[in-house]
Amino acid sequence: MTKSAMRQGMPYGVPPDLVPLNLGRGEQVRAWLERLPAIIASCVEEWHLQLRPCFSPLSYNYAAPAILAGGQRAVLKIGYPNRELGSEAAALAAFDGRGIVRLLDWKPEYGAMLLEQLLPGTALTRVTSAAEVDDARATSWAAHVMRTLWREAPADTSPFATVAQWFEGFERARHGHGFGQLPSALVDRAEQLYRELLASAGPPELLHGDLHHGNILAAGEGSWMAIDPKGLLGERAFDTVALLGNPMPDIADWPDLPRILRRRMAQLSEEAGLDRARVEAWALAQTVLSSLDALEDGDDEGHATAATVATALMP
Fold first, then answer.
1. Are 135 and 160 in a shared domain?
2. Do residues 65 and 73 make contact, with C-beta atoms less than 8 angstroms apart?
3. Do residues 138 and 191 share a domain?
4. Given 93, 116, 139, which residue is the final one in a domain?
5. For a Cys-Cys bond, which of 88, 198, 272, 293 suits 143, CB 3.0-4.6 Å?
6. Is 2's pLDDT higher than 70?
7. Sorted alphabetically, which InterPro entries does this protein's record hold (predicted)?
């Protein structure tokens, strides 16, 4: 912690939420957790922030509302400095506040972003439900965010992963943890679809990469904006997949799930201007891969939910 922060009586601690998920990420992340109080204090001092209690619950990253010297509301987000965090910052800079929260500043040496705060900030998760009228309304707002967000790939694509690179997860699954609750025939079909979709895709665009209900927030006056982009290069239809499998894990228990998913895919295709056949193909291929990834990570609940959705997506 800086001497200035100590004089101001700001003993920043590590929020308990951050510890369980980060402890399994290796010694370097453990060391980052130990440094986090000092990093927070440095950000407060250098950005002249009035920091408020952090959001809850947290997952892998620290995030707290703050007020800038001029009175503007902001969010301080700090994560372990790695490629994924750098990709997020680069994507926010490229999207430049169009359909997504605006990046105000970025300190890569700290893994710290200063973001505008979206108010009231209610997640789209709170709006959707198994009731068709609720889910249709939430899906429509998500489609609008998608149309506003998507951009041509920037000249410098080096910060971003590609959908083709994500496909490598199938190879790991073949020689790793197996298929869990997924039948091998379903995995084979998903892998075939992935190959066909990649071979027939047009020039890649910059996508969000994780555009689910929890990453779309109310921004006032009936508008909604995205947060937490992965920053991924691929075709637009791919960016609908995360929305189809959410909200997790509740969606696995929704009645008549196949019908709900078909309606979502039809609505997203129409309102976001996408080819429905490709939306449906990406949905099955990527949901299977998500289930395999969760299995590999030891996330049994995530694997089970994605497996349920993938099975419901089968024609």
1. yes
2. yes
3. yes
4. 116
5. 272
6. no
7. Kinase-like_dom_sf, NH2Glyco/OHUrea_AB-resist_kin
Instruction: Tell me: pLDDT of 1 over 60.
Output: no
Question: What is the count of structural domains for the chain?
Answer: 2
Q: Over range 145-174, report the average pLDDT.
A: 91
Q: Are residues 180 and 130 in contact, defined by beta-carbon separation less than 8 angstroms?
A: no
Quote the pLDDT of residue 6.
36
Q: Tell me: do 142 and 285 sit in the same domain.
A: yes
What is the span of the domain harbouring residue 298? 124-313
Rounded to 5 degrees, what angle do the CA atoms 196, 276, 280 make?
A: 55
Q: Are 242 and 116 in contact (CB under 8 A)?
A: no
Structure tokens at 207: 């996508």
Distance CA 226, CA 145 (A): 7
Same domain flag for 79 and 166? no
Amino acid at 8: Q
Contact between 103 and 143 under an 8 Å Cβ cutoff? The reply is no
One domain for residues 144 and 267: yes
Using DSSP, state whether 76 is helix, strand or coil: strand
Q: CA-to-CA distance for 39 and 216, rounded, in angstroms?
A: 28
Please tell me whether residues 174 and 51 are part of one structural domain.
no
Q: What is the mean pLDDT of residues 39-50?
A: 96
Is 228 found in the same domain as 145? yes
Is the pLDDT at 133 greater than 50, yes or no?
A: yes
- From 116, 146, 166, the end of a domain falls on 116
Strand partners, 205: 152, 234
Q: What is the pLDDT of residues 186-205, one digit of tens each?
A: 999 999 999 999 999 999 99
Q: Which residues, including other chains, have CB under 8 Å from residue 234's CB and lie 6 or more apart?
A: 162, 163, 164, 201, 204, 205, 207
Q: CATH no. for residue 280?
A: 3.90.1200.10
Phi, psi of 113, rounded to the nearest 5 degrees? -115, 140
DSSP 126-160: GT--SSHHHHHHHHHHHHHHHHHH-EEPPS--TT-
